[in-house]
Amino acid sequence: MTEQYVLVVDDDPAFSQFTRNLLTDKEMRVVVAASKAEGLKAFERERPSCVILDIFLPDGSGVDLIKPMRAASLTIPIIMVSGQSEVDEVVRAMKEGASDYVKKPFQGEELLLKMQMVLDASHAKVELNELRIKARPEEEYNLLFGMSDLMSKVQAVLDQVAGTDITVLITGESGTGKDLVAKAIYKASDRANDPFIKVNCAALPRELLESELFGFEKGAFTGAHRRKYGRFELAQNGTIFLDEISEMHMDLQSKLLHVLQEKQFFRIGGEREVKVNCRILCATNKNLERMVEEGKFRRDLFYRVNVVNILVPPLRERKDDVPLLADYFLRRYTQMYNRDPMKLSPKLLELFLNYSWPGNVRELENNVKRFIILGNESQLITEMQRKRETGQYSAVPDDFPSPAAEVVTTSSPRNTGRAPTKEPAPVAAGKGGDPNAWNLSVKATLKEVSKIAQRNAEKGLIEKVLLQTRWNRRKAAQILDISYKALLYKIKDCGLTMD
Question: What is the CATH classification number for the domain harbouring 327?
Answer without folding.
Answer: 1.10.8.60
